[in-house]
Each structure stands twice: as structure tokens, then as C-alpha cells.
Amino acid sequence: MSFFEGALLKGSRITVTLVGDNEPKFSGLTFKEFSKQYGFGHITSSPYYPESHYGLDEKAVQIVKSLLKKAAEAGEDLHLEILNYRLKPLEGGKSPAELLMGRKLRTKLPSAEHLLQSKDQFESRKCSSNVTTEKQKLYTHWNVKIWCKCENDSEQIPVAKRDRSLSWKAETDVDMNPKTLRFLPARKPGPQLSLADSRSPMSLFKLFFSESAVSNLCHNTNAQAARALAKGRKYSWTDVSVDEMYRYIGLVFYMATVKMSSIADYWRQDSLFSLPLPAAVMSRDRYRTISWNLHMSHPDADKENDKKRGIAEHDQLFRIKPLMDTIHLACKTFYHPRRNLAVKERLVACKANFGMTRFTKPKPPKLGFKFYVLSDTSNEYTVDFSVYTGKKSFPTGHGISYDAVMSLLDKKALGSGYHVYMDDFFTSPKLLTDLLALKFGACGTYRDYRRGFPQSASNSQTKKSTRGSIRWIRDGPLVCVKWMDKKEVSVCSTIHAAYTGDRVQRKVKAQDTWRTKTFPCPAAVTAYNHHMAGADLSDQLLEYFTAQHKTMKWYRKVFLHFLDIAATNAFILHKELHGNMTRKEFMEQLVADLCGVSQKEAPKRTSIDHVPVPGAELTSDVRKIATAGRRMCAHCKAVFGKKQPTPWKCQACDVHLCLQLNRNCFQEWHTSV
User: Fold this and answer.
1) Whole-structure pTM value
2) What mean pLDDT do residues 514-542 have?
């Protein structure tokens, strides 16, 4: 009976019914006494019908033989094969191990701890965890740390119990008026130029792109071209001058005003949509070679900086720093902002595989260089900006959003008493408190989950709160306001009271008709919408006539953005001084002045423009002078259908044409066009 006892008591339990055949060991008196002793029933199959016991024993033998065979072929351990079989789910969805033990078995694969416990053990532990959580809620709140000032101002003690007493107040509760900051700007706000002098768009643009800055740009561009030619680049190059660089910039702005699908389309001569200006200013090849070699820093200095890559002395912005410093200084010098400022992010679209490109989901261009911009909300003038180069670019330890705002607000250059508006990326209690200590008021939307903001649920709003309902909490100079519009809006401010009676109009649909209704609105929300709309207009002004287009070099993308900043700020200065031009008229006049043409009549091509020039750079080998750089004649191919190679091309049209004693395709081409 020891065999039967071991088999029946394998899982520490006694079976209810045992099904077997009529073998002597099952039909004998000894087994009957054994079944009676352990209290289980025994059913035997018909002696003449062995299939009546469902073939379970034969099936079990078959399974074991199959496991033995698989383990031998694969060279695996038999015990692991049996373990895997015990874990395989049956028709009911549970494995034999779960049916026998009420839990899964541990294998070599990682498993969650609660899956290896029985159901009773897991429920007991879960219940114990819930009890512990409820006890912790009675004594502390997870995301809030509130400080209470003692008699000694240097000592601050965290008070956990105070969080339970805090509750949101409604618009009917009266809030204190914050202390008004005295506005003391370092200079008189507005343009720092004489109002009596008449300034053209060209002269205002040169305030940001001065002749000295453009001269340095030409020097570095010529050095880069010499380096490229030394490496074997095959194109002709003459050093670019200051006047030619201004004409190049004029063409960039012209392309921003007149949109074409590609750069080559601006020099097309055989189309109804041909444009006369680009070819009159410079040839297509010249424009391209300047674009390829445009450089804001010296190539030799770039090489020395690249050797420092990976160490603290390496400067990621080295290639743009000379021009960036000039634009920085000009933005601050020729204009002083009025009282209300806005800080926001700006993304310059770029897909270059470079360490400074960032992905920002909410922005329309989701991938590019991130700029932190300080602008005047009254006219969208860009006062200051900084380029994000990584988390280590602001090593103060207070976070990127905190350090970005602090780096833009220079009290010595600006003065004090300014009101700064920002979005929820920047707003934090520490930032607003530290700005107030520097005599800067601040207001901005905030994220509810950010550390330091109130998380109290007492008297708070819900998703079912009516539109226009207000809740607020004041903690010293900080007031946190929640306002229900279509969805909840959270604003924190040091310069506004919670509610001063302001109302806004909203369209509401009732009974299939739209009607205008008025709702109460916090003062902080009203001021935020008014001033941050100006920051959005700043980006709109940049996008109306943006110089951005596809380029392979990341620093050229930033150069084009510097052009946008300079042109936009120059237009704002012109508007402040004279106010007699629209943005389109300003850009048209600026393009004409930079390119050196008259805006009133279209430029006419002279015979000097259309002259035959070699199609490729001349070689020193006398035997190859007549054949080097030959291309198919466009006139022969179009008129006669022949492929006639020629070394000559038109300088203005950039088209290869035959020029021989017996065949002058050059003259016939220009006569027909």
C-alpha cells in the first residue's frame, strides 16, 4: 500500500473518486480496505469493455513517452520538460499546477511575485497594503510640502497637518490685493534711436547685420571656400565681398517673399513663370557656392574646438557664436522693452543628426533647435534669446525651466518692476518667489502635478463643475487660481488678486442655437491671455516672410533664423519710429535696397548679363582645354534633336550653347527666348 499512499497523497490531499481497471491490485480485498480507510470511492471499468475508463492511463503513458523522447532529442533535462507540461493550460484555461496547488510554479523565466502566491496569500497581502496606505493618508499628503514661518525667519518647519486645513476658496471670497511693484526701467522704454531721423529699412536692418559683422562673415566664408577647394571640390570661386554678401542676403529675403518649389526655379528662363530679379543680381552657380561655403566662424578655429569634443571646454555653439553675439548685443542696444514681457519656447525646424536637436510634441515643427525667447508683449520685439544645448547648459541645479528664465532676465540691463508672463513649462513656485525677490512680478499657467503647487481636494473643482466657476488658494505672495472654461485652467501669479470682477464672453450652444454668454474670469487669466497672445504674434511675424528653407548644415539653419530675427526687429523699429509701412511693403523695400535695384520697375537684363563663359574651370593641361567640362548644347537638342557637346555656356541663363564659326546657337537661343 506504500505505492498507493505516495501516489494519492502526492499533493497533500486525498482524492474523492478513483477510476481504474480490473487489474488484481485494484480488485483485491487489500485495496478495498485501503479505499475505505482513506474515504474515497473506487470505480472499475467493465471487464469486457476497457474503453469505458476513458483511456486516461494510456494517455498519461503516451504523454510521458513523448516528453522522454523530446528531452532526449533536444538534450534537455527531463524534469524541466515535465515542469513545462505542468504549466501548460488545459481546456478550462488553468494549468495542472494551478488546479492542484492554486498558484503558478516558478520557472527560469522572470515572473511577478504575486503570481507565484496562492489566491488567499495575495488577497491577504493586498488587504494589508490598503490598510497601510489609508493610515499614511491620515498623517501626510504625498505631493505637497508646505512651510510655516516661525518667529525666527531663518527657520522653516514643514507642517503636514496644515495641508488638511487648506481648502479652495470660491469667487465670492475676498482676496487681498498684492503689493504693487514700482516700475523702474534702466532706460526709457522704446526704440533707442532719434525720432527725428528718417531711417530706411536697409539702415535699420544694418543695425543688426552691421558692415563689420558682414565683413567677418565674408572672411570666414572665403576661408571655408579655400579649405573646400584644397580638399578637391570642383567649382570656381572668387572671394565674396561685403556688397555681394548683402546682395546674397537680399536674394534670401526675396525667396522668402516669392515662394518657388526649388532654388533652381528662380533662375529658369524658358518658362512663363520666369523671374527676372535673381539672374540680374547674381548667377545661380554663384548663389549656390556662397550657400555651400557660408560660415560664421573661422574653419581653423572650428577644427581646434572639435578636438575638445567630449570635455567641458568644448563649445557646441562655436560655429554660430560670432554672429549670435552680434545679434544679442543689437537686440538689447537699440530697443528697451516696456513693462510686460513674455518668456516662451521657439523651435527652429531642423532634422540634422546633431546633439542639440530636440523633439517637442506640442510644437508644429516637432524636431529642431530650441530657443528660449524673451519678447515685449506690446509689439512682439525679440529682446533676448538663448539656445538650448542640453541639460548641462544651465548647471545651477534648479531645473532647465528655472535657469532659462533667470538667464534671460538681467536686472542690471532691464531694471525692475517688470511683469513676466510664461507658460506651464516654466512656472514653478520657486521661480515666481525668486523673481519677486528680484523685483520682477510673474504670472503663468502651471501643471497641477508639479511639486509645490496645492493638491488639496477640499472644495476643489470637478469635471462636472459649471463653466465660469473659480477656486483659489493664496500662500503669501503666491495665488493659485483654477478656472473652469471648456476645461480647467490653472494659473499662478504674484501680481494679481484671485478675482476682481472681470467677465468674458463665450459662445454656448443651447437648443441647437449658438448664443453669447458672459462668465466670471480671474484677473490672472485675463492678463495672461492678453499678453501671451503677443508672444504668439511674435512667431507669426517670423513665419510670414521666413527665410528658412532646406539646407544640409545645421548652423546655416540658425543663420537663417538670425536673418528672421533681424528683419522682424528692424520692421518693429520702423513701425515704432514711422509706422507707415506694412510688413510686406517693408520686406519689398528691404529686398530692393539689399539687391541694389529699384523697386518701381523690374530689372532689365543687359547684354553684359548674357555672355558666353567656360562651362567648367579651365585646366592647366593644354591638350584638354577644348574638351574639359563639355555639356550637351540645349539649342541643338531642342531644335535639331542632336547631342552636340560644347564647352561654352551663358553666364546669366546657365545653359550650355554652341559657339562656332559655322553654328552660333548662342545667338539663336537668345533670339528665340
Assistant:
1) 0.65
2) 80
